[in-house]
Each structure stands twice: as structure tokens, then as C-alpha cells.
Amino acid sequence: MRIVVDAMGSDDHPAPDVAGAVDAAREFGDSIILVGDETQIKAELAMQDSSGLSLEVVHASEAITMEDKPSQIVKSKPHSSMHVGMSLVKDGQADAFVSAGNTGAILAVAMLRQVGLGRIRGIKRPALGVIFPTKHRPMLIDNGANTDCRPDYLLQFGIMGSLYVERVLKIDNPRVALISNGEEEGKGNALIKETIPLLEASGLNYVGNIEPKEFMQGAAEVGVADGFTGNLIMKTAESIASYMSSIIREELTANPISMLGGLLTRSAFKRVRAHLDPDEVGGAPLLGVNGVVIVAHGRSNAYAIKQAIGQARRVAENQVVEAITSGISGDR
Fold first, then answer.
1. If phi over 0 gives left and psi between -120 and 50 gives alpha, with beta otherwise, what is residue 36?
2. ∠ CA 269-270-271 to the nearest 5 degrees?
3. Angle, in degrees to the nearest 10, between helices 302-317 and 320-328
């Protein structure tokens, strides 16, 4: 594998981006191409033990920030690390692109056929399909790429999510459900009600509407939502998990007896954290673009970047883009 990492992507770039790339090259044995400010990247590499690893630096004179507007960066920063990195994938010089940068900007650049990857033929809107950090690891799609959706968008999200789960998670005939405010067919807004007959006729293993609590408990392998709803679900779950972790930590250090109990249960809490920690997932695949793109969280640390690179190599290995291309054309 040759995987491009946007070294200017994370909030604390390029330190976690470079460190994560080094860890990934060591663990997976892939060639990692770090794209961004050459001086900064090489300074970070000098602090890493990267001997014997296949690491390449490609200079990009511009970097896209979280404050940049996606609608403007296409023309205002044509030499950004995102543009340069995705063009390497487009030109066949790399197998995947990973970035912890501005999600809207990643989508905007990926959609450009001239420098980005463009959409797979027949795809109306790409979608972010995040693996939810719960015990059953279901996919939530969309997770924020499309705040306003139509029923045919949600149908395609279900198809793409199902194909990803089949190929990468190795689950045959995964269950697909619509995220709604109730299980009954009469529940949901107009978008949900209009999408139901499309999914029923799709040939997918559609199991109906489910509420977020059932999704988290494993009632379906793919939960379909518009990007606005999906993003709120994900951010709410992350904030609750973070809050609960902080409360547990406070209570376990409140007095000597609690501290002793905390020591005795430390290994169990580590296992719980591994289930809930979004860093374990690393990043979300941007499904529907004509290439492998993984979007990591802006506050990703080195471990999360490494996991996002692992996600990229699995998507590329299992030919998810090719499966979606066939699936959307009706050859599933």
C-alpha cells in the first residue's frame, strides 16, 4: 500500500500526523507519503525513530485551516496539502488519502474532478460512514457530509454502508435501518416516510426504523440518517462518553477506599474505554467519491492517525470503491 497522509490536517499539526504515520509504517509495513510543509514535516521526522521505514515527504506550499470556508478553498488554496495529496491518489501514485483536516474542505476538494477524485458515476452525494464506537461496531451513515438530504440520497447511503460492512467488516447481508424517533412506520419526519418505500424495494436487508438507543445496542449493522441528524448523534454520544469518563475518574479518586477500588478495577475500565474511544476507530471513510478518503477528527492524536491509516488500507484492500461502483450501477 502507498497511503497519503495530510501532515497539515490535525489541530496540532504536524506532530500527531507525522508520529501516527511513523507508527503506521512500522506496524503495517506500508509506504506513507507525508504531504505538507516540508520543513515542518522533516523537523518532526527528525524526532522520530523512522529508520528502515518507507516514508516520503511531498511539499505543499499551502495548508487549509478549520476556519477556511470550503466554498472558497478550491480557488484560494490550489496548492494545499489536501489538493496535492488527493491528486496523488487521482493520478494512481497512491492508494488512499487520510486527513484530520477541515471536513467540509476535504469533501469540496474530493468532489473536484480536475484535482480531486470526483464522485462515483451515479452517486448523488458522498457520505461519511463512521464506525460507531460501541460493542457491536455498527456504521452510522451520514455523519455530517450532507445536512440537507433527499430520500434518494438516503437510499444510496444505505447501499454504500451495506457494501462497506460486507467488504470490510465481513458481515454477510448486513441489516440496514433508518434512524428515526420511533420504530413504528408512522413515526419520523417527511424525509423518513418518503425514504421507507425506497429502502423496502432496494433489495437490501432493510429492517425498518430504529431509535438511536437500538442502533447503539446493535439492532442493525448500518444506521442511515441525514448528515445533520447523524452528526448530532455522534457528537452527543462522544460528549456523554467523555462526561461519564470524567465523572468515574473523579469518583474513583474521591477518597482512599474509592482509590483502592479504582486500582482493582483498572484493567476493566481500560477495556470499557477501548470500546468507547473514537480513537480506536481512527477515521470515517468518505464513501461515494472515486477513491479512498478517510476523514479523521481534528483533535486526533498519533494513535488515532495510525488507526485512520489502518482504516484506509482496509478500505483499499477490500475494494470498497469498486464494490460501490458496481452496486450503484445495479450489479450488486
1. left
2. 90
3. 50
Angle ∠(74,150,323) on CA atoms, nearest 5: 70
Question: Do the Cβ atoms of 138 and 230 come closer than 8 Å?
Answer: no
C-alpha 190/C-alpha 186 separation (Å) is 10
CB 191 within 8 A of CB 154: yes
What pLDDT sits at residue 271?
A: 66
Following DSSP, what letter does each residue of 169-208 receive, concatenated?
A: S--SS-EEEEE-S-SSTT-S-HHHHHHHHHHHTSSSEEEE
Query: Other C-beta atoms within 10 Å of 189: how many?
Result: 11
User: Which amino acid is residue 319, in one-letter code?
Assistant: Q
CB distance 125 to 290 below 8 Å:
no
Domains of the chain with bracketed CATH? 1-123+288-332 (3.40.718.10), 125-279 (3.40.718.10)
Grid coordinates given for 256: 482512599
Contact 157, 284 (CB under 8 A): no
Q: Are 325 and 120 in contact (CB under 8 A)?
A: yes
- How does pLDDT run across 205-229, given as a tens digit for each residue? 999 999 998 998 889 999 999 999 9
Residue 277: the pLDDT is 61
In what helix (H) or strand (E) does residue 133 lie, and over which residues does it extend?
none
**Dist CA 199 CA 188 (whole Å):** 15
Euclidean distance between CA atoms 106 and 61, whole angstroms: 17
Q: Residue 192 and residue 215: Cα distance in Å, rounded?
A: 16
Alpha-carbon distance 8 to 41, whole Å?
9
| Distance, CA of 297 to CA of 289 (rounded, Å) | 19
For residue 70 the three cell numbers come to 470550503
Asked if residues 130 and 142 have their Cβ atoms less than 8 Å apart, the reply is no
pLDDT of residue 252 exceeding 80? no
